[in-house]
Amino acid sequence: MRIPCPHCGERSLEEFTYLGPANPARAVPEAGRSALPAAGLDEAVTSTYLRDNLPGWVTGIWYHALGCRSVLLVERHATTHEIAGARLARARGVAPVARTGIGDA
Amino acid sequence: MQRYSIVSLVREALRGHVGWRPAWRQAEPKPEYDYVVVGGGGHGLATAYYLASRYGKARIAVVEKGLIGSGNVGRNTTIVRSNYLLPGNIPFYELSMKLWEGLEADLNYNAMVSQRGVLNLYHSDAQRDAYIRRGNAMLMHGVDATLLDADAVRRKLPFLDIDNARFPIKGGLLQRRGGTVRHDAVAWGYARAADQRGVDIIERCEVTGIRREAGRVTGIETARGFIAARNVGLACAGNSSRVAALADLRLPIESYALQAFVSEALKPFIDCVVTFGAGHFYISQSDKGGLVFGGDLDTYNSYAQRGNLPVIEDVAECGMALMPRLGRVRLLRHWGGIMDMTMDGSPIIDRTPVEGLWLNAGWCYGGFKATPASGLVFAHLMATAAPHEAARAYRLDRFATGHAIDEKGMGPHPQLH
Q1: Can you tell me the distance from the alpha carbon of A27 to that of A30, in angstroms, rounded to the nearest whole number?
Q2: Which residue has the higher pLDDT, B69 or B99?
Q3: What are the chain A neighbours of B250 within 8 Å (beta carbons)?
Q4: Angle of helix B371-384 relative to helix B90-107, nearest 10 degrees?
Q5: How far from the centroid of its chain's Cα atoms is residue B238's Cα?
Q6: B241 touches chain A (CB under 8 A)
Q7: Interface contact A18-B255, CB threshold 8 A
Q8: Is B218 helix (H, G, I), strand (E, B) or coil?
Q9: Mean of per-residue pLDDT scores for chain B
Q10: Would an 8 Å CB–CB cutoff place A11 in contact with chain B?
Q11: Among A27-36, B64-73, B121-130, B372-381, whose mean pLDDT is lowest?
Q12: Which candidate, B213, B277, B270, B273, places its Cα nearest to that of B247?
């Protein structure tokens, strides 16, 4: 599997770290608050733990760890591993939360 | 009913083996059953068998998309063990180990249960302490555990790279009752035993819909027509999310491919299961002589039953670090299976929000060793509508209530469990 990085061009899978599916967005507390309101807990549980996890086209968050260190959104087919494209997560206004600790910065 | 024994074997040997009959019938779907199990893998067949044999239920069917034994029950590395740490896990896996020990007599089928021992190596003082803790937890639950030092490991497996400069082997935690079981024979044995008790095993019968009325399941739509049932149990790990979506359920599961490998056949030289503690690698030798081994998941979600090359390279590197003589061995085959990876690395055996729809899912890496206990406790759940004593912790809502069973301590990152 080779991923077309917008910065580096087509690169091999070994250079990338998969951080998880791009949806759903994480529930985050309002600005200035440290915790979610109680009513938001269901939403937090849903977004943290539940997944669609269906075959077909999926969007994943990938970290180009051994390249430009960008966080990418990659469109991939979960059954054939065909890759339709990759774009910078930042360009879409997504603030990715690194899931492995590797991408923390 | 044809019973297998030394008498039947001798009789058939003298008659030229023309009298053996198929181990199970090719059943046609009936319009209605009391219990339908979706998924004809080890867990589904075991569930149907225990529903009939232990809980005295009748009118049971197992529906399978493909053929019996073509899914993960025939794709694993055949290891059985109960060397777990957490209270929610140990009693369940130990129940499974006890069922393995009596399985062949129970099923009248040779599943080649071989308690050759499972040895987890440690490479640092911290890892040794963690294994001592695990071993003590096992002993307190009545499971066997033995701590070996480096000399004992050297005597047992002298060809390991014990004095490896980077990851020296300092010892290992041995579960002598662990070992391997012929995986295909488990599927066939349960299928035959369930069939003998009247269970209809319906192959090539994909489920395409789950019909519900007023929050209660009424049956399943299949490739071979509608089958009415008041109790439907899902045992289709790898594809649990897809099948559960037919009932509008979302699960705490992501699907990943796990690869396994087998080498050309060699003379016997590994007499137990060995796991490398500094990477992810486990190996045993089949009775046919092939080295059976595996390693990490492919690191991204997938529904392809095949793997990718970077993981093969990683597995080969781990193998060479542990056992340099592997470098002379030729790989014969490798393949992949799809794992239900849950958010805490532990399975789910529970009721669902749909009345009469029961869920057995999320087996991560650990599905094969769990097969008998999974079938037993799932049958218990479906027959009595109450969880079995050994599986109380495997609740579907445990993530919302804060009762995750995270054996590896990784948090909700399914690819890391």
Answers
A1: 9
A2: B99
A3: 46, 50-52
A4: 100
A5: 12
A6: yes
A7: no
A8: strand
A9: 96
A10: no
A11: A27-36
A12: B213
